[in-house]
Structure formats: structure tokens, C-alpha cells
Amino acid sequence: MSDVHALAALLESGPVGVSRLAEAMGMTTGAITRLVDRLERGGYVRREADAADRRRVVLRVVPERVAEVARYYEPMDERWRREVDRFSEDELRFLVEFLRREREHTQAETARLRDGGRAHGTRRRSQGSP
């Protein structure tokens, strides 16, 4: 499921570097590299030189391959659209604002936990760390 989330993040953000995608998804760079490797092998993304900085590599979605996956979500999309149609414009504005703010709060909390949290289970812990 992370693979689909990564594709959705790339579709939303446009081409980004691997570390930026890792940050957006709350994953380590090692985990996101393995995920991107899978997506690249499957033909869903390409690594390309950044037009603004040729030293940097960005991930770009392959639209034709993503379209193949998207068709599996069409029934869910239809149901989603029917549900959304039941709400007024004011209710939808509230919902979008609420979700946007909660996403920001979640990202801030994730960063706080990452920066001040416990040592990762596979890393050597310093003396005195739990």
C-alpha cells in the first residue's frame, strides 16, 4: 500500500527527490529507496536529472503505468463522488480545511517524534538510552 501512497504523493507534488518523498511519507531514506526501486522496476516512476540542478535526481511518474493502476480505483472513486455530492459547499470547505490542518499537525508531530524520540531499534544506542 505504501507504493500506491508514494505514487499519489508524487502525483500531488510533481517531481521530487527521494529524500523529499521520504520526508513527505514519514519514511527513512533506506525504506523509501527500496520502495522507489520497486516502483522503478515496475515502470511506474523514472529517476531523472533535475532540470534546475543536473546534479540532483528527481522522481517522475510514468502516466501510462499509473493509469493502469487507477482503473482499479474507479469504483471507489464513483462511490466517493456520490458521497461528496451529498455535502454543501460550506461543509466541504470545513472538511478540507480540517483535513489540511490535521495533516500539518500530524507532520509536525511526526517530525517532533523523529527528532526527539527513542533510538531506532536497529541502531546502536548510546549509553543511558532506553
Question: What would you note in describing this structure?
Answer:
This protein is mainly alpha-helical. Helices cover 62% and strands 8% of the residues. It has helices at 2-13, 18-25, 29-41, 63-70, 74-84, 89-116, and strands spanning 45-49, 57-61. A two-stranded antiparallel ribbon has the order 1-2. Strand 1 and strand 2 (57-61) form a beta hairpin. Helix 2 crosses helix 3.
Give the SSE layout:
Elements: H1 2-13, H2 18-25, H3 29-41, E1 45-49, E2 57-61, H4 63-70, H5 74-84, H6 89-116
Antiparallel strand pairs: 1-2
How would you describe this structure in keywords?
single chain, 130 residues, mainly alpha, 6 helices, 2 strands, 8% strand, globular
With strands numbered from the N-terminus, the spatial order across the biggest sheet is 1-2
- Biggest sheet details: 2 strands, antiparallel
- By DSSP, the count of extended strands is 2
The percent range for helix content is 55-70%
Task: Please give the alpha-carbon distance between the first and last residues.
Answer: 32 Å
Instruction: Name the average pLDDT.
Output: 87
Structural class: mainly alpha
Q: Any low-confidence stretches, pLDDT <50, length ≥5?
A: none
Element-level helix/strand string: HHHEEHHH
Shape type:
globular
| Number of helical elements | 6
Percentage of β-strand residues: 5-15%
Note the quaternary state here. single chain
Give the structure's gist in a few sentences.
This protein is mainly alpha-helical and 130 residues long. Helices cover 62% and strands 8% of the residues.
